[in-house]
Amino acid sequence: MDSTDVPFYVELARQATGPIVELAVGSGRVAIPVAEAIRPNVLVGIDTSRSMLDLAGEKAEAHGVQLDLRLGDMRDFRIDSPAALIYCPRAMMLLHTWHDRRQAFERVTAALKPGGRFVWNAFVFDHRTATEQDGRHMDNPVPHIVRYAKADNRIDIVLDDGGETASIWWATKNEWLGLIEVAGLRLETLYGGYCG
Ligand SMILES: C[S@@+](CC[C@H](N)C(=O)[O-])C[C@H]1O[C@@H](n2cnc3c(N)ncnc32)[C@H](O)[C@@H]1O
Questions:
Q1: Is domain 5-122+171-182 classified as CATH 3.40.50.150?
Q2: What's the whole-model pTM score?
Q3: Helix (H, G, I), strand (E, B) or coil at 104
Q4: 73: Cβ below 6 Å to ligand 1?
Q5: pLDDT digits (tens, 9 = 90+) for 105-153
Q6: What residue ranges do the domains of the chain occupy?
Q7: How far apart are alpha carbons 78 and 72 in whole angstroms?
């Protein structure tokens, strides 16, 4: 999988002067390189999954870095001091509805210090690709079927073994811009890719 987002977020973290938070920190894929870059400051990582936080903690320890890992939901998080940078790689599209995203954006606004930045990434959704993939069976990385729920803006990854279905709810560029506006944020830069 393309990991060029890691140097992109590391560079933003280097520019931040103050606390840094990763929303939906997962296994620490981005958080660990960021934490290495901002030492001795400590990155706060928030996630709803205890098992992912445990994994991130183990990986951080193996890399000799410290993470401040907290169980929490990005729609309802609070931090102790205002953040200079809040970022969210690969996870905003896991929120189901515009309302969920709006809650997350509003919490971000409340948690940022003046001049602080919120940075996230989302892909541009291609209906043609989604339609081609709809119902297709794939063997990698594990056997699954992709389903496209058009009316719900949703793609489901349905595992053959009956395991938990993973879904993403895509949004348009204008929806993201609307969220910035309603949350009281100001657009600084809109990139078409990680190289800027
Ligand atoms: C695809 S992983 C991304 C992890 C990491 N940001 C990265 O880029 O490698 C998605 C993570 O989002 C977490 N997550 C999903 N919904 C969340 C929510 N509402 N608040 C916080 N974390 C959430 C999941 O538990 C999972 O660990």
A1: yes
A2: 0.95
A3: helix
A4: yes
A5: 999 999 999 999 999 999 898 999 999 999 999 999 899 999 999 999 9
A6: 5-122+171-182, 127-159
A7: 9
